[in-house]
Amino acid sequence: MPHIRTVLGDIPDAELGITLCHEHLLIDLKRIFVDPCDDASREMAHRPVTIENLGWIQTNYTRNLDNLGLYDESLVIEEARLFKQAGGSAIVEVTPVDIGRNPASLVRISEATGLHVVMGCGYYVHGTHPADMATRSEDQIFDEMVADVREGAGGTRVRAGIIGEIGCTWPLHERERKVLRAAGRAQRETGAALTIHPGRDPAAPFEILDVVAGAGGDPARVIMGHLDRTYPRFDKLQELAQRGCYMEFDMFGIELSYYPFGKTDLPNDGRRIDLIKRLIEAGYLERMLLSHDIAFKHTLVRYGGRGYGHILQNVRPKMADKGLSEGEIRTMLVDNPRRALAIA
After folding, report:
1. CB 3.0 to 4.6 Å from 182: which of 71, 141, 219, 285, for a disulfide?
2. Is the alpha carbon torsion for 258, 259, 261, 263 positive or negative?
């Protein structure tokens, strides 16, 4: 029977409930920090995150060392409970091995909050890969991912329930291609879904699907993440949807004209909903997934952010105001995650 693999064990897919399909509970992004050259910015870069410097951090959120990750397990438990209190049931935790995945901690968070937690496996972008990744073979990476899903991750008996997020840049780095091919093979071998962090170019998701299919993976079992920062235009979104992958809008709550990774102006939540509504009208309701991609301290409620409860507390009512039915919203938050995460 179809089941969902959580960090506390397998559950029937019907028990999953409202699910955020792309979040981080613990993550370490300090490797992307670049110390500013000027004294004023350097001083701000090394301050702890507070409400007083929140405005600067929102504009420069990768340039503050304290902001680059989630490390405090007790704080994350407090924040995740807000999602539970808002009616949430499950979080897909997609932190890769090389940027802070912690199976034992995810077990404790799940036990403390009562949330189902689905853990990922695999590796992020080439800049964060382990030093020996260049010499690892595709078969070795494949074997590790399969073992994480079937036996347990990182020397534990805690099993991954999804492959990824697999990090890709543009153009696709040779080591990322190797990991991606291994992930496509592991997806086919285990029956688990494969979730992707694509490169920041409209062509990147298409190339990724070609690589996965070429390795024997199933594009219909691929979750293509971060579409709200990759495709500002509807025509390219629709073209990707025609490839059959899951379409994930996973940056709700991040409304930013100062995106640190490129020249893209991120859409606000209203614009995200408009794009989702057009995709639904075009017939792709059953391929839509939603999340926040919380990974930085300033996105937590404690520090002035919207937190894990934002979609349920704020986005869901706005979707209704824009004409989405309760059935359509439930499909995106409950039914689609259940289908995407089910391991047969």
Report:
1. 141
2. negative
